[in-house]
Amino acid sequence: MSTTTKSKSVLWDWLTTVDHKKIGVMYLIAGTLFFVKAGVMALFMRIQLMYPEMNFLSGQTFNEFITMHGTIMLFLAATPLLFAFMNFIVPLQIGARDVAFPFVNALGFWIFFFGGFLLSLSWFFGGGPDAGWTAYVPLSSRDYAGLGLDFYVLGLQVSGIGTLVSAINFLVTIVNMRAPGMTMMRLPLFVWTTFISSTLILFAFTPLAAGLALLMLDRLFEAQYFITDMGGNVVLWQHIFWIFGHPEVYILVLPAFGIISEVIPAFSRKRLFGYTAMVFATMLIAFLGFMVWAHHMFTVGMGPIANSIFAIATMTIAVPTGIKVFNWLFTMWGGKITFNTAMLFASSFVPTFVLGGVTGVMLAMAPVDHLYHDTYFVVAHFHYIIVGGIVLALFAGVFYWYPKMFGHKLNEGLGKLFFWVFFIGFHLTFFVQHLLGLMGMPRRVYTFLGDQGLDTFNFISTIGTFFMSAAIIILVINVIYSAFKGERVGADPWDARTLEWATAHPLPEYNFAQTPQVRSLDPLFYEKIHGDGKMKPAEPLQDIHMPNGSILPFIMSVGLFISGFGFIMFNMENPILPPIVVAVGGLAITFICMIVRSVKEDHGYHIPVEEIKAKEVN
Ligand code: HEM
Ligand SMILES: [Cu+2]
Q1: Does 386 sit in the ligand 1 pocket, CB within 6 Å?
Q2: pLDDT for residue 1
Q3: 357 CA from centroid of ligand 2 (Å)
Q4: Least buried of 118, 225, 394, 463, by fewest C-beta within 10 Å?
């Protein structure tokens, strides 16, 4: 801690921080809380489906849980958990002192957080949204959906702005802040996937914002974009939604691929097989990911030509994905593999994800999709991708980067127990759902009848969910246990390859005392083989310029939150204040903060050389 921030309280420090590492930790905490919340909803839904004709949840509550579970998991759990690693790790991996715009980084976090908070408030104002995470019209129109849906629209609108500004920040960071010698073709795969995923966010979240704005106009001000009575078009919503919605899956899964591509080489003690092919496969997947949105709409009546084009386009994604899978296998081939917890998660990711990919190709066959559509087969498919892919990768990342983030390892024994209980629970839960789907069980139903052959598999599926819940409890125990008893480690506990492991320990706020000179792909490994194991500096040791913290991002986000709430008040009966006042008032707060930020001069502060020297000795 430098002298300028020493006097402040801990809470104030976190509320005003612009340090990418602290922001990374905040994303980790917020994402975990939302993950647990949505996980409990999943558990409750599965308990309701444990036996035929259960009365654990009402149909209405079940619909609200389905909507909130899906929405929270995708927007408020998976995305921020990946952002946690992007924030913490990417600047370190490219040898930078921070992201390009630290202030904007804090802003992105707080906007996401208050958007999520706004969405969560729906429970206190007449129930959660209940039209599914896709909010199809007319289910989401004013005739069918209450206030909960306004929270969905405005909550996502606000948190989406946060995601968008963060993505722009990552793009600029990766283009501009790389250490000397770190060419684009020397970027670690996790940085590459962050870069491409951020590009996807840029092009996918903008149509989402537009769609949500139109839906808001429909709901609050009786515009008629999507209402058929007045010449609106419901299929228009589906197109807009899936032009965002399909790339969203790749926004999540590409960084997950990135994590896997870091963990597998580290614990196979080999360089990643086919680096260049991996990079171009990632680009190709991202591009094709934008071309295939209408495979979600095979059954709406687009006609055979459109269906065929989208079916074929979808299947071609299997090619670059296959390249990735084989490159991971070739990386492990002949390697000296250490099967610790991180590697267990990373290596089990590969076959699990492949299974999800195979059912994806099955779903892409347009004529056959009429059978699968809206059955549990689809639920099984996307959970194999989302849980078997993204969540397994996140856990691999947690165990791999934990020592860098918190200075100690997670316990390996508890970690492996966690892995096995989760992995078995996952397959128990979701494998049988393929069969349920083929047997005709529709998705998004809150109950089913006995004697239809659906009992056993639904029961097994719910038991699997109990396993996964137990696993999460084991993880929590591990985190607490390791905080006290975990093995304290140095800067490079895995004998790894990339730059984040070349920092001093404990990690100073400026990351690198001197920007490192990068001489190769896997720069740290290169120095271990060809040099003395230490990165060479690219600049003389000098005072380091750091940005000041600021409370403005927090206040700006509160402003947007108030404004969002104000718009929702248009649909409330007897609002306490005129909605327009609240909506505009909130925006005014945000704009005033923007003006203050522009006008007030803030030059940051310097860390003197003596202080840096003192720190780097440890
Ligand atoms: C790990 C344990 C999980 C369990 C037991 C679980 C369970 C469920 C259940 C029961 C449904 C409703 C299925 C239906 O009737 O259509 C559902 C839907 C969904 N889940 Fe999960 N889920 C889990 C994890 C996740 C994760 C990690 C994500 C995303 C990051 C996710 C995303 C979704 C989505 C997008 C839907 C669709 C909601 C809709 O139909 O509108 N789930 N899940
Ligand atoms: Cu899709």
Answers
A1: yes
A2: 40
A3: 12
A4: 463
Q: How far is C-alpha 302 from the chain's CA centre? A: 31
What pLDDT was estimated at residue 3? Answer: 45
Q: pLDDT band for position 263 (50/70/90)?
A: very high
DSSP helix/strand/coil, 251? helix
Q: Report the C-alpha gap between 60 and 130 in whole angstroms.
A: 8
The predicted-structure confidence for 338-390, as pLDDT tens digits, reads as follows 999 999 999 999 999 999 999 999 999 999 999 999 999 999 999 999 999 99
Strand 536-537 relative to strand 516-517: parallel, antiparallel, unpaired? antiparallel
**583 CA distance to ligand 2 middle (Å):** 35
Please give the Cα distance from 441 to 438 (Å, whole number). Answer: 7
Residues 6+ apart with CB under 8 A from 199: 167, 171, 286
Count of other CB atoms within 10 angstroms of residue 103 = 18
pLDDT band at residue 213 under the 50/70/90 scheme: very high
Phi, psi of 442 (to 5 degrees): -70, 155
pLDDT digits (tens, 9 = 90+) for 555-579: 999 999 999 999 999 999 988 999 9
Q: How far is the CA of 169 from the CAs of 104, 177, 191, 554, in angstroms?
A: 7, 11, 13, 17
CA atoms within 13 A on the CB side of 167: 23
Q: How confident is the model at residue 230 (pLDDT cuts 50, 70, 90)?
A: confident
- Structure tokens that stand for 224 in this block: 């008629």
Query: Is the CB of residue 116 less than 8 Å from the CB of residue 159?
Result: yes
Cα(179)–Cα(511) distance, integer angstroms: 12
Q: What is the mean pLDDT of the chain?
A: 95
Triad 596, 4, 614: Cα angle to 5°: 140
Question: pTM of the entire structure?
Answer: 0.95
Q: Tell me, in angstroms, the distance from the centre of ligand 2 to residue 315's CA.
A: 11
Task: Give the helix/strand (H/E) hosting 253.
Answer: helix 234-268
CB-neighbour burial class of residue 121 (10 A; exposed 0-12, middle 13-18, buried 19+): middle
Answer whether 387 contacts ligand 1 (Cβ < 6 A). yes
> Which one of the ligands is nearest to 294 CA?
2
pLDDT score recorded for residue 157:
97
The whole-number pLDDT of residue 10 equals: 92
Ligand 1 atom nearest to 387, measured from its CA = 27
Mean pLDDT of 207-217: 97
Cβ atoms of 514 and 539 within 8 Å: the answer is yes
The atom number, within ligand 1, closest to the CA of 391 reads 27
Q: Residue 426: nearest ligand to its CA? A: 1
Sign of the Cα torsion 282, 284, 285, 290 reads positive
CA dist., res. 15 & res. 31, Å (int): 17
What is the predicted pLDDT for the residue at 547?
94
